């Protein structure tokens, strides 16, 4: 099966959060084989994990990242095409007075150049990027 979805950090993190989102966990179980993550998301996950002090929580996260995430989801690069798209979108959004966080722009550009649906619990963070389809798999739609 081919890739269809690019997962944002909050979606990948949901299964191991203190209150896992059942809808996200269920969707990952159903279509996980069609999902990928971006290099910036992998960075956010590893950074978040390794900035924690040594202990059970960090060990659990390290295990999840190595045993589940990296073995389940291909990591798509922020390559020349994505960088070009990101640059064009930054200019367009700044001209509209809507500058976006740099990492969100990288993730959106990777989704765009790979023709993938970006899945996030923070739809509002990505709504300004043109040409990117964004989905929220959560029924807790509080962060639009």
| DSSP strand content | 5-15%
Average pLDDT, rounded to a whole number, is 94
Low-confidence stretches: none
The CATH topology is Rossmann fold
Largest sheet: 5 strands, parallel
Number of H- or I-type helical stretches = 7
In total, how many beta strands?
A: 5
**What is the annotated CATH architecture?**
3-Layer(aba) Sandwich
State the CATH class. Alpha Beta
Helix content: 40-55%
| Assembly state of the chains shown | single chain
| CATH-defined superfamily | 5'-nuclease
Spatial order of the strands forming the largest sheet: 3-2-1-4-5
Shape: globular
Gyration radius (Cα, Å) is 15 Å
Distance between the termini: 30 Å
List the helices and strands and how they pair.
Blueprint: E1 5-7, H1 9-13, H2 22-31, E2 35-38, H3 39-50, H4 56-72, E3 75-76, H5 80-95, H6 102-113, E4 117-119, H7 123-126, E5 134-135
Helix pairs in contact: 3-4, 5-6
Please characterize this protein's 3D structure.
A 5-stranded parallel β-sheet has the order 3-2-1-4-5. The chain has a single domain, classed as 5'-nuclease (Rossmann fold), CATH 3.40.50. It has 7 helices and 5 strands. It has helices at 9-13, 22-31, 39-50, 56-72, 80-95, 102-113, 123-126, and strands spanning 5-7, 35-38, 75-76, 117-119, 134-135. The model has no long low-confidence stretch (mean pLDDT 94). Strand 4 (117-119), helix 7 (123-126) and strand 5 (134-135) form a beta-alpha-beta unit. With 144 residues, the chain is α/β, with parallel strands linked by helices. The chain is globular. Helix 3 packs antiparallel against helix 4 and helix 5 crosses helix 6 (102-113).
